[in-house]
Write a structure and sequence with these properties.
The protein is an all-alpha fold and about 475 residues long. The protein has 17 helices and no strands. About 85% of the residues lie in helices and about 0% in strands.
């Protein structure tokens, strides 16, 4: 691949990785802000429907998040594979990977959609929907029915980030956010669809994002990657390459959300479905705070996958250390802001008459959650580095350990102490442990990969940065 044929984004991706992290992370952060703001907007509109509707969002969310996690996991696998091929100078193979990822999404959705629709009611009853089952199903069915759109949305973003087109990835996410923002009040209140309206607004948002991405690739054709019809036929070796990172990452993201089911049961047992409502909102706020770490993690997948293809391990080390330091400082600052704004935030989400009594409980929750937020930077950045190094299985193991410990801590807190505060403390302390574990393994794996390839990392240069 010559420089004459490379786009400016490709040149950035193949250059100084620290610069690439800065350039790539800003559009990714904007996209994530739009995405996470959407979740909060959904919560703000739905909170007007009462605690039952809010609880429905929280109960369905772990399953919904599994679908999103699979889409994002496949997108990350696609992104890493494309970036590696570009780093190796194999642009045609990168294009084949991009096209095959769309085929893979269709195959996965054909399997998932009927399973989700058939098991929706018994699964929601199993995880504690009970009195909120009707509202939960109203929210779940539109999302489960359009699984293919959720998967394709994550993959489309991954394709764009894989070729360094992070601004285009940002545009499709922002477009989806705007569509959701406009349609939420219309579908929920004007059309009187209630909580189902929030789900259908999300569906249209996913669809608009995919449409814009396909327009760039198939109509305007102004991207580095070229999607060709000849690449659509199932290619097992190529799909295995995508899944080498995409499958463990999908499982990692899904595991986190499946474990949430056990957390939800403990919360409902200790504090009823109303406590579930404030827990859902609190996590949506926390995810907003963690955007810098998520953005730098997304940038690492693209930049460091390309560096991995070129075997420039010193550059990878430099980028990783910069990302850890920057994300930890950003998340510390945002945690402080959440603490001083806790009363105002709690008022915003407990204003309906049947939720006002939860104001102080939500404020306490935000105080305790603020303690672990900075350490989540190590989770996102460390996991992303492992994906770039094609070691997603290590990240998966770390995630399983962290969530396994958290489940044990949650169950112990629920049955031994039996207060909401004890659950929040169990989560905070375990997430700190999980962050340190992921960060340590990312450092060890990078050192080991470089050593196996006969390279020695130059840590002094990294420390100077």
């Amino acid at each position: 691949m010559s420089n004459a044929n490379a786009t400016r984004d490709i040149q950035v991706m193949l250059g100084d990785p620290k610069k690439a992290l800065v350039v790539f992370s800003i559009p990714i952060a904007v996209a994530l802000l739009a995405q996470q703001s959407n979740n909060l907007v959904d919560s703000m509109w739905v909170t007007g429907l009462g605690a039952e509707a809010m609880a429905a969002l929280g109960l369905v969310f772990p399953i919904y998040a599994v679908i999103i996690g699979i889409g994002n996991g496949l997108g990350i696998g696609t992104s890493a594979a494309i970036a590696r091929k570009i780093g190796m100078g194999k642009s045609e193979e990168a294009s084949r990977i991009a096209t095959q990822s769309l085929t893979l999404a269709l195959v996965v959705s054909v399997i998932m959609t009927p399973i989700l629709l058939i098991t929706a009611k018994p699964l929601l009853m199993l995880i504690g929907a009970g009195p909120t089952i009707e509202a939960s199903l109203d929210y779940a069915y539109p999302l489960f029915l359009t699984t293919v759109l959720i998967l394709l949305s994550g993959i489309m973003s991954g394709i764009l980030r894989g070729e360094g087109a992070v601004r285009k990835s940002m545009y499709i996410q922002v477009l989806g956010a705007v569509i959701n923002l406009v349609l939420d009040p219309i579908f929920i209140y004007v059309m009187d669809w209630g909580v189902a309206g929030a789900a259908w607004a999300s569906v249209f948002a996913f669809g608009s994002s995919i449409a814009l991405g396909l327009y760039w690739y198939c109509v305007k054709k102004d991207t580095f990657i070229r999607m060709e019809r000849k690449y659509l036929r199932i290619d097992i070796p190529v799909q295995k390459e995508i899944l080498s990172v995409g499958f463990p990452q999908s499982v990692e993201l899904s595991v986190m959300n499946l474990f949430n089911i056990s957390y939800n049961l403990c919360i409902i047992m200790v504090g009823t479905t109303d406590a579930m409502a404030i827990y859902t909102v609190a996590w949506r706020i926390v995810y907003l705070l963690m955007i810098p770490a998520q953005a730098l993690g997304g940038a690492i997948v693209s930049a460091c996958s390309a560096e991995f293809g070129m075997k420039r391990y010193d550059m990878i080390n430099r980028a990783y250390r910069y990302a850890v330091k920057s994300s930890f400082l950003w998340l510390t600052a945002f945690s402080f802001i959440m603490v001083i704004s806790a009363d105002m935030i709690s008022s915003m989400f407990t204003h309906s008459p049947d939720m006002q009594y939860l104001h102080n409980d939500m404020k306490a929750l935000l105080y305790i959650f603020a303690i672990f937020v900075p350490f989540m930077s190590l989770v996102f950045v460390g996991s992303s580095l492992l994906q770039a190094l094609n070691r997603s299985k290590v990240a998966l193991i770390s995630t399983v350990i962290r969530n396994g410990v958290l489940t044990i801590a949650f169950v112990a807190a629920a049955f031994v102490i039996g207060t909401l505060a004890s659950l929040w403390w169990a989560m905070s302390l375990t997430e700190i442990f999980g962050g340190l574990l992921m960060g340590y393994w990312a450092y060890i794996v990078l050192k080991d990969v470089a050593k196996r390839d006969g390279r020695t990392l130059n840590y002094e240069d990294a420390v100077k940065d």
